[in-house]
Every structure is written in structure tokens, then in C-alpha cells.
Amino acid sequence: MASGDKGICGIVFGVIAFAYPGLALATLVILFGAWVVIDGLFRIVGATAGRASDPDWGFHLIVGILGVVIGFLTFHSPGITALALIIYIGAWALMIGAVEIALAIKLRRELKGEWLLILMGLASIIFAAFLLWNPGPGALALLWLIASYAIVFGVLTIFFGFRLRSLRTLVPS
Fold it and tell me: Cα separations (Å) of 28 from 17, 21, 38, 81, 86?
């Protein structure tokens, strides 16, 4: 899945979450679980496909597997409490944020515009901090926080995708 496609999915998810704030928490669990499983699967595919050229492919594989596990844990317990859901989402966002920042640091010499990856990572970490700092907000506040994060992360992912696409024309195959 291209960065732009993943970004569009995040934006659509965020807009839908804002448009229907009265959705049951169970629906939020399903949407989040699907998003994390799909993201994890694509990270697994990317890690295994790039293992010949990426010495850190195992790390990316673990991040993808953890994403899938968090997604399936979310599906496994649809009656999960809001506190447990917040912890799942916070842990996932913290992990993704750390990976994005580490990737930006690793690619800073090969890639111009790595600051977008750093912003993506910081957005994820700030989101996780808000969730884990006060895990007792109402479902509506949680929904708005998740929707905001999804939209910001989606927009930054699209910009990063355009940046990568522009590099494709500069780098020979």
C-alpha cells in the first residue's frame, strides 16, 4: 500500500469518526482493530520483501507483527473496557512513533524531507502521551482524539508519499 493510500485511509477514518460521534465503543474497537491489522500486515509484507536490501528488516517485521497482534487482541475482546482500549491504542501509537523517528534518523543522509517522518513520529508519540496520561476520558473525547490523530497522521503520510514519489524520478532503478 502506497503512503498516499495509507494516508487517505487515515483521513477517511478520522472524518468518519468526527461525523458520527455517537458510534458505540464497539464500532470504534472494530475500526481501530482493522486499521492496526492492515497496517501491520503491510509492514510485514514490506519488511519481508525488503529483507535483501534492508539490514533492519527484522525490526520492521517485529513492528508489523506487534501491530497485527494488537489488532487481533482488539477484535478478540469487543466488550473491552475503555481503559484497555486506550492502553492498546496508546501502546501502538507509541511504537509507531518511535519507529518513524528512528527511520527518519537512519535515512537523514539518503532522504531530504525526513522531517516529515519526524513529525509523523512526534504526532504518534504526542497522541500516545495524551491517551496514557489520562486514560479515563469519555468515549466521545477518545473518539475525537483518535479522529484528530488519524487525520494529522494521514495528511503527513500523504506529504511523505509525494516526497518519496519525487525521489523515484531522481534515483535510477
Answer: 8, 10, 15, 12, 11
**In Å, what is the CA distance from 25 to each residue of 82, 102, 125?**
8, 33, 23
Half-sphere exposure of 29 (CA within 13 A, CB side): 18
Residue 148: which of 24, 36, 4, 13 has the closest Cα? 13
The Cα-based distances of 30 to 33, 56, 135, 155, 159 in angstroms read 5, 31, 19, 23, 27
Q: CB-based contacts of 59: which residues, under 8 Å, 6+ apart?
A: 99
Predicted TM-score (pTM) of the model is 0.51
Consecutive sets of 10 residues in the chain, 173 residues long: mean pLDDT of each?
74 82 66 88 92 88 92 77 72 91 87 85 90 68 80 88 75 58
Q: What's the confidence (pLDDT) of residue 122? A: 94
Which pLDDT value is given to residue 26?
65
Q: Roughly what angle, to the nearest 10 degrees, separates helices 139-170 and 3-19?
A: 160
